[in-house]
């Protein structure tokens, strides 16, 4: 994820808001195509693809169809060196078609995210692939560390417990919090919940790299 820019406000956005909205809309269409390719077969396939391409074509021809005044969630920014930084994060970026995207709803001592996973994340039928549960938890626990510890840290260890399957096609909650800070080491834990029940638990260690000599 791109770190917030310290550039003056008039230099923060290197493209028009409309283009940023269009890019995020296009990422959404890509997500819908990715899911639709797994659930649409035979005679339905071509009409499905035509519909999705049509949505994109319409957005290109008439950007206002995307909703006047709508704001991009993750517009590119200039970084401290003046380079364009696009939010590439594969879990939370609205501009990355790979990301579901998982949305931050609360940030503080505990971080809370919500996400609804479509078919392209399936492991067992209608359930989330376990590796992807780890991806969601890694991101959420990293965020809790980022919010509560000043130095940027990287995941050194991550342990996941799978207690119940995580359902697809419905909102799930991901919670994360720091449990201990010890010098460069930060320990954190978190859970994925569906319908108020814990599905997966995680704990791990994040380390900020040794300062350069
Ligand atoms: C740079 C600018 C970027 C700007 C923009 C950033 C944006 C960033 C966006 C990222 C968004 C990603 C969100 C999801 C999070 C990821 O996915 S992060 C990516 C996955 N993780 C990685 O690639 C990390 C790979 N590992 C590494 O690079 C290095 O191991 C680390 C983590 C930097 C640590 O290296 P190190 O400083 O050499 O660590 P080391 O000296 O071995 O250990 C440090 C201390 O921890 C202790 N320790 C090590 N392991 C353990 C353990 N298991 N238990 C207890 N203690 C331990 C050691 O004994 C040592 O203790 P002391 O000797 O200090 O007492």
TrEMBL record:
InterPro entries in the record: HotDog_dom_sf, THEM4/THEM5_acyl-CoA_thioest, Thioestr_dom
Pfam families membership: 4HBT
Lipid bilayer topology: Peripheral membrane protein
Enzyme class: hydrolase
Gene Ontology MF annotations: hydrolase activity
Subcellular localization(s) per the UniProt record: Cell projection, Ruffle membrane; Cytoplasm; Membrane
All residue ranges annotated as the Thioesterase domain in the record: 128-196
Catalytic activity: octanoyl-CoA + H2O = octanoate + CoA + H(+); hexadecanoyl-CoA + H2O = hexadecanoate + CoA + H(+); (5Z,8Z,11Z,14Z)-eicosatetraenoyl-CoA + H2O = (5Z,8Z,11Z,14Z)-eicosatetraenoate + CoA + H(+); tetradecanoyl-CoA + H2O = tetradecanoate + CoA + H(+)
EC number(s) stated in the UniProt entry for this protein: 3.1.2.2
Keywords, in A-Z order: Apoptosis, Cell membrane, Cell projection, Cytoplasm, Fatty acid metabolism, Hydrolase, Lipid metabolism, Membrane, Transit peptide
SUPFAM superfamilies reported for this sequence: Thioesterase/thiol ester dehydrase-isomerase
Similarity comment: Belongs to the THEM4/THEM5 thioesterase family.
Identification of the protein by name: Acyl-coenzyme A thioesterase THEM4
Organism in which the protein naturally occurs: Citricoccus parietis
